[in-house]
Design a protein that fits this description.
Layout lengths: L2 H27 L2 H16 L10 H25 L3 H7 L3 H13 L5 H18 L2 H4 L2 H21 L7 H23 L3 H6 L3 H26 L4 H4 L6 H13 L5 H27 L3
Helix pairs in contact: 1-4, 1-11, 1-13, 2-3, 2-9, 2-11, 3-8, 3-9, 4-13, 5-8, 6-14
Length: 290
């Protein structure tokens, strides 16, 4: 990979890491479903040209978009709202990688060797250790909801592998449309005072919503697609393990959070476990010439 593209990947990691703090701050200004609906609506405005009917692909496209969209983001935003630490949340969000691996074994018939089994055990053990911390245990409900969001994303990743002849921007357009529609409905059913929240939304709050939509989604996901067009998946994917590291540092610098020893150890164990799974998959892909 060229130095320019490595710097580009580093910039995406930084944007995604800071986005974890932005989510935490944004959810202090808006209720979770309303925040998610606004974010998706902004993305949808920019992706409307890609919102096209895809004959023969719509069933799997909608199934994938529903799981990585409304199911994932509804629980993601709610989990962040319930979590007390953005740094701890950034670690939990990495569970989508081992969950995707487990689901690939169950539904796609992929096999796990001892390296990846060990990596999975480390990843889940790290989160369990972190959750046992008294500070984190006080918002264990947030950990559970955030974990469910990663399960939803993992299912979506499996479905996305079955989608044919659909570009990433077309997938993003349909996902954003489903998120916007579903979360608006959820907000109307389960939340209150939406009009007052919007009327009182500060310029800073508007900036937070714009950052998550334009920065994390359009720049971040669009940039990843750009790299996937030019390099093997096995080369690109491991680069983005840096995003939770940036997220932890951003939460410490911008939110004044502190890491307890147990949280730090749990985070390191989780990160190492996810790294083993990811890099082992990359090695196997290279061995097969993928």
């Amino acid at each position: 990979m060229s130095p320019a593209h490595l710097l580009f990947a580093l910039a995406i990691n930084l944007v995604w890491g800071v986005n974890l703090v932005v989510l935490k701050l944004g959810l202090d200004e808006l209720s979770p479903m309303l925040f998610g609906a606004l974010r998706a609506s902004i993305v949808l405005v920019f992706l409307l040209p890609w919102l096209k009917w895809k004959p023969g692909s719509m069933k799997m496209l909608l199934l994938a978009a529903m799981t990585v969209g409304p199911l994932h983001f509804a629980t993601l935003f709610l989990g962040f709202k319930l979590m007390g630490d953005a740094s701890a949340a950034s670690i939990v969000t990495q569970l989508s990688i081992p969950f995707s691996t487990v689901l690939a074994v169950i539904f796609l018939g992929e096999r796990l060797g001892p390296w990846r089994i060990g990596g999975l055990a480390m990843a889940f053990s790290g989160v369990a250790l972190m959750t046992a911390d008294p500070r984190v245990f006080s918002y264990v409900d947030g950990v559970i909801v955030l974990t469910l969001s990663q399960v939803a994303y993992a299912f979506g990743a499996i479905f996305m592998r079955q989608v044919k002849d659909v570009s990433v921007f077309e997938m993003q357009a349909w996902t954003s449309a489903l998120i916007a529609g579903t979360l608006i409905g959820f907000s109307l059913m389960f939340e209150q005072d939406q009009g007052q929240q919007l009327a009182e939304l500060s310029a800073f709050g508007v900036g937070l919503v714009l950052y998550t939509g334009l920065g994390a989604s359009l720049f971040g996901h669009g940039g990843v697609y750009y790299l996937y067009q030019r390099y093997p998946v096995s080369t690109v994917t491991p680069l983005f393990l840096l995003s939770p590291v940036f997220g932890i540092f951003a939460s410490i610098l911008l939110l004044g959070e502190t890491l307890t020893v147990r949280m730090l150890i749990g985070g390191i164990v989780t990160f190492l476990g996810v790294s083993v799974v990811t890099f082992r998959e990359a090695m196997l892909a290279r061995a097969k010439g993928l």
